Amino acid sequence: MVTKDSYFCPVKKYALIVAGGKGERMGAELPKQFLPIAGKPVLMYTIDAFRPHCDELIVVLPETRLEFWGQLCVKHDFKTQHKMAIGGSTRFRSVYNGLKLVEEKSLVAIHDGMRPLVTQDIIERCYKLAWEDEGAIAAVALKDSIRDGRGNVDRTLFKLVQTPQTFQSRLIKDAYEFYYRIDENGAFFTDDASVFEGAGNNVTMVEGSYRNIKITTPEDLLIAEAILHN
Question: What pLDDT shows up at residue 7?
Answer without folding.
Answer: 61
